[in-house]
Amino acid sequence: MRVVLAGASGLIGTALASALRADGVEVSTLVRRPPQRPDEDSWDPEQGLVDPDFLAGADAVVCLSGVGVGDRRWTDSYKQQILSSRVNTVSTLARSLAEHGGPRTLICASAVGYYGDTGDRVVDEQAPPGDSFLAEVCVRWEAAAQPARDAGVRVVHLRTGLVLSKRGGLLKTLRLVVKAGIGGRLGSGQQYMPWISIADEVAAIQFALRSQVSGPLNLTAPTPATNLELTRALGRVLRRPTVFAVPGFAARLALGEFAGEVLVGQRAVPTALLAAGFEFAHTDLESALRAELA
């Protein structure tokens, strides 16, 4: 099997590329700099440019590209980067597959932010989108793949939750805060944070590559946890107190508009993945944290 991967330098992309190669899969990567190896090719998604010959002969394309949602304060210009870095990458690949042929499978990153704030209501892949900025981003992100879908390409949207990895993402930051003894809930702490171990995230993408699933997949463990439950579990694993709390108004002062996303949540469950026969390695939050942070 040969897979073309965009976003190979990110947290999930790095882990996925390593796992695929360990399984004997040939991984070719799209990069935004001059290529340095035979298995690389440069592309310019902002201009809609990708070489269809590089895609030809691959079994699938996986697109995990996108600037970090929480990396910077949300100015108008950064919000545009969040949107364009996702929509332009997917649309460039989808148009190429539709116009020039090539792989018949396109797997694209998305996020549980698609659902907006769902409170304590359980949501699966059939739930409608929310009305937040990130929900709008996810809707347009997934819609960007429509040309490929219209051309008969199997398209999968990975609606990923909080990925538990010590190497990056939110857990890396939370781990430092809790280890310093100043960890605690964010706001009310009752907002759900659907999580998934990095091992299950990678395994689920590999499952999507080799199966015939299509459409949206919630890449979340079957047991979503609240922010308070996550914080307390992390405190137990690291043997640190988690008695502090960050009030909602303080989060809004520190994070600006982005605080509106982290103070709400989604009680998302992986109905489609489970129905397709995927088996999670980690369904208990605390054991997942111990496995990652051991």
Question: What report would you give on this structure?
Answer:
The protein is an alpha/beta fold. It has a domain at 2-163 and 194-221 and 267-281: Rossmann fold. The chain has twelve helices and 15 strands. It has helices at 11-22, 52-55, 76-100, 133-143, 146-150, 169-179, 198-210, 227-238, 248-255, 259-262, 271-275, 285-293, and strands at residues 2-6, 26-31, 40-42, 60-63, 105-111, 122-123, 154-160, 162-164, 184-186, 192-193, 195-197, 215-219, 225-226, 244-246, 267-268. The chain has a seven-stranded parallel beta sheet, with helices on both faces. Strands 6-15 form a two-stranded parallel ribbon. Strands 8-11 form a two-stranded parallel ribbon. Helix 1 (11-22) links the parallel strand 1 and strand 2 (26-31). The radius of gyration is 19 Å and the shape is globular.
Placed side by side, the strands forming the largest sheet appear as 3-2-1-4-5-7-12
Shape: globular
* Biggest pleated sheet: 7 strands, parallel
Strand content: 15-25%
CATH class of the domain at 2-163 and 194-221 and 267-281: Alpha Beta
Spatial gap, N to C terminus? 33 Å
> How many strands?
15
Q: Secondary-structure map with pairings?
A:
Elements lengths: L1 E5 L4 H12 L3 E6 L8 E3 L9 H4 L4 E4 L12 H25 L4 E7 L10 E2 L9 H11 L2 H5 L3 E7 L1 E3 L4 H11 L4 E3 L5 E2 L1 E3 H13 L4 E5 L5 E2 H12 L5 E3 L1 H8 L3 H4 L4 E2 L2 H5 L9 H9 L1
Helix pairs in contact: 1-7, 3-4, 6-8, 8-12
